[in-house]
Amino acid sequence: MGIDNSKTANDLLNWEDLRKMRYSWNVASEVLRLAPPLHGTFREAIEDITYDGYVIPKGWKLHWIADDTHRNQQYFQNPDKFDPMRWEKVIPDEKLVSAPTPRPAQGLPVRLYPQKT
């Protein structure tokens, strides 16, 4: 509501607003963890590595599958549970950066309305 009160009817959200919306950012992060927009991506081994008993030579292409990592209990406790709070206090002063992914040219055009009680 504080962000809503600081905006006029035509104001758009900006990165500073998003930085203040910690819980909303946590919800978005959890949604992306459970339903990643990309199936995976390719990487190149920068040196010879051994993984699960197999040698992967330098220069080979690897395909990483996001869902396999995001639902792995080794990395996420209760991986199938929707829990936005899992993102709280991981890196308290983490800065938000834009990634080279598609985004609206005009920023994040959203209108906020007070909740009716």
TrEMBL record:
Short name of any one Pfam family annotated for the protein: p450
SUPFAM superfamilies: Cytochrome P450
Molecular function per GO: heme binding; iron ion binding; monooxygenase activity; oxidoreductase activity, acting on paired donors, with incorporation or reduction of molecular oxygen
InterPro entries linked: Cyt_P450, Cyt_P450_B, Cyt_P450_sf
Transmembrane segment boundaries: none
Disordered: annotated segments: 97-117
Entry keywords, A to Z: Heme, Iron, Metal-binding, Monooxygenase, Oxidoreductase
Keyword Transport: no
Highest taxon above the source species: Eukaryota
A single GO BP: sterol metabolic process
Family, as annotated: Belongs to the cytochrome P450 family.
Protein name: Uncharacterized protein
Organism: Capsicum baccatum (Peruvian pepper)
